[in-house]
Amino acid sequence: MDFIIANQAFILGLITTLIVWIIFRVTGKTLDKTKINSALAIILDIIQDIKINPATKNLDDYAKKQLAVERATKSLPAKQTNLVMKVFGTIGGAVEYVFHNRKWLFSIGKAIKGIF
After folding, report:
1. Which pLDDT score, from 0 to 100, does residue 113 have?
2. Half-sphere exposure for 62 (CA within 13 Å, toward CB)
3. Could you tell me the CA-to-CA distances from 34 to 53, 54, 71, 80, 110 in Å, in that order?
4. Deepest in the core among 29, 51, 54, 80, taking most CB within 10 A?
5. DSSP per residue over 48-73, as a string?
6. Can you give the pLDDT at residue 29?
7. Using the 8-state DSSP alphabet, how is residue 90 labeled?
8. Confidence (pLDDT) at 70
9. Can you give the pLDDT at residue 37?
10. Residue 11: per-residue pLDDT
11. Per-residue CA distances from 86 to 82, 89, 107 (Å)
């Protein structure tokens, strides 16, 4: 049980990926992996900017998330926003996913490519 609690961010990311994979296998729709990765990269840049910017680094976590959602909504093109909404449900869900998985998100890109 302690293992699950200690690694819940990783486990939630894995479960989310599996759910998305099952949905797209059942519906027969495919997604462009490069567009998803580029949208996640934009969100990752926004999160890192908020974390290191002296004006925003002292905000609480909720305020940082709201700021990241607001910036992501403004900076993502309409097609990428729709794609993020299809995969994660909301922009906030994508921000949460990237925040909790930012350390290993792009380091295991080959594994993610195999799933999609």
Report:
1. 46
2. 0
3. 28, 32, 21, 11, 12
4. 80
5. HHHHH-TTTTTS-HHHHHHHHHHHHH
6. 62
7. S
8. 94
9. 81
10. 75
11. 6, 6, 23
CA 51 – CA 45 distance, rounded (Å):
10
- Give residue 16's identity as a one-letter amino acid code: T
Cα 79 to Cα 32, 47, 63, 76, distances in angstroms:
11, 21, 26, 8
Q: Which pLDDT value is given to residue 71?
A: 93
Q: How far is it, in rounded angstroms, from Cα 84 to Cα 90?
A: 7
Residues whose CB falls within 8 Å of the CB of residue 112, separated by 6 or more in sequence, listed in order: 17, 33, 37
pLDDT in tens, 91-105: 988 888 888 877 766
CB-based burial label for 54 (10 Å; 0-12, 13-18, 19+): exposed
Residue stretches of the chain with pLDDT short of 50 = 108-116
Structure tokens at 114: 């195999």
